[in-house]
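Reagents: none. Just compute today. Nuclear transport factor 2 family protein.
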Amino acid sequence: MMNEYVKIMDQFFQGMLENNIEQWMTIWHKDAVFEIPYAPSGVLTKLEGIDAIYNHVKDFPEKLNFTRFSEPNYYPVEGQNTVIAEFECEAVILETGLPYNQKYISVIEYEEGKILRYKDYWNPLIFIGAYNDEPQAFLKFLKRSQ
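Predicted 3D structure written out:
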């Protein structure tokens, strides 16, 4: 039997690869919290509730094209509905045409087959590099996603 978190993350990756935000949103609990602890100053570090998460990601298909996610390494937290996932992505920023190849470590708490809390750790310098090393362009991307 496949672990619940593997099913959730398979849908997570599939939704992003297919640019299907509506499908991607079905894996989120209505009271979900999405945190971005390393977000630059001036960018929200916490999105609370499914509507806030949707508003953050709804325009992603117009901004970036994910082409690949690596096979994740999972580290389940014993006795909890929490898993740490380590994976990489390959994508292209549509505005610049530059690659966005990122490494992620995500802490995911799930309940009843849905993501309840997602902490997304990634390197903002890689994202800024995909915007020609122009921090303001990167911040513009993130602020349009809020």
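The first helix runs from residue 4 to 17.
Action item: order primers for follow-up constructs.
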